[in-house]
Amino acid sequence: MSIKKVMVCDDDRGILDLIEMIMEDAGFSVISEINSLNAISRIEKEQPDLLILDIWMPVLSGDQVLKSIKDSNSIIKLPVLMYSASKEGESIAEAAGADDYIAKPFDLDELVGKVNRLLVL
Fold it and tell me: Could you write out the DSSP letters of every residue in 99-114?
């Protein structure tokens, strides 16, 4: 079984580092991207198995990144797990077409569980 590759996109370095550490501890290979403007090109280059995506980011928000993914023929099938501390985060993620959503602050086991479920699909 090959190691699954997970990409994390968040403008907050602390959260990016935390999720990277959690995912590596869970046995995943991790790609981090702090600039949402680079997300699509990194996805196309790195070909991750799953994207963990913050909703609230400057310049290009997570739902805009997800719209670009859904508009792209090459990466449209990429499973996306979105997260946010916002009360409307879940409805934004659902409207954008995310495969799953987790609220911040998230339970680490719940995050790993959601990632595992999405990767089994």
Answer: SEEEESSPPHHHHHHH
